[in-house]
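Please check this chain.
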Amino acid sequence: MNKILKLSGLLLVLALASCTVKENKTMNPSGFEIKRGVNLSHWLSQDFGWEPKYTYIKKDDIRFIDSIGYDHVRIPIDEIEIWDETGKPIEAAIQHLTNCLDWCAEYKLRAIVDLHTVRAHHFNASNEGGTNTLWTDSLAQNNFVNLWAQLSDILKKYPTDMVAYEILNEAVAPDHDDWNKLMNKTVAEIRKREPKRVIIIGPNMWQIAPNLQYLKLPEGDKNIILSFHTYSPLAFTHYTANWTPIKEYKGTVHYPGQIITDEDYAKYVDTTNTALVNQIADARDQWNKDRLLQVFKMGVDYAKSKNLQLYCGEFGCLPTVERTDRLNFYTDMISLFEENNIAYCNWEYKGDFGIYFFDSKNVKSLEPDYELINILLGNK
């Protein structure tokens, strides 16, 4: 019976994928057209050693991603994975990246190369006891620009309607202008080599949509896509996540409605735990589709004012919550993206947020979750 259900799920996904028209109108002159994508995380970025690189993402994975109806992948890369400490590109890592781009070209998938972390900057440094020196160290800033000069020289052979660059994942600068200055300097360096390459730019402070208004974009450059990330409400999407203060909360969560009831808040939340309280501050609000939209509505308005495409490069929910609640959350998110013409890329392909059932004990992806896949691809 399980095999029959899995087969029927696959057939439904494939049938609906074959009917899916990639109708999202291109808003950039280079024709880089995206609508639905998935992040290839924990491969060339934040590699936890779950599986060897040469087997973690293979050509068959790209074939599968294409077959179910995605139109692009986002490929996070880390400086420590791609360049050695002398700044020299690591040949094997570059080969993994270009192999993946070649597979994408074969299956007509578009790809975003996302510089996820560098030695001088990590989006989660504050939670991991680290510091970001990128904003105060001029040598680190020059190195950052040089990384993109090298990447551009390596990747400029790929068509501009197939590959785009994302300058930095979730910049966390003390001041918005710090990010604006480095971002514009980096764009200018890329433009010397590739005047028509699409560049994806997100705002300062973890790429939250309201901060898009503080961006100072390159004047007159239309080959830009604006990006934001959202994991709100964090108490729900990161329930039990051991890398966040939310791990201290031992009550239940639900969606839609109050994520944490007043009763559970009083019973399970230690109000002296400031880090926990801050991360679940909105958990007693009434969460539904309208409340989710409030999180990124300012970004929608800003993108319209600039006549630029808006892209949600990351969103997701751990499977630690009730399955029905999780699927309801994803259904509402996809509906909002479609209604507001937002291209999106779910976090992630493999891993605990992924589109496969995940064995957390053995840290292993199992069979595809076709019910979730259908929702993520907007298949009704």
Q: What stands out?
A: Confidence is low (pLDDT under 50) at residues 1-5, 18-24. The CA atoms of residues 215 and 366 lie 41 Å apart.
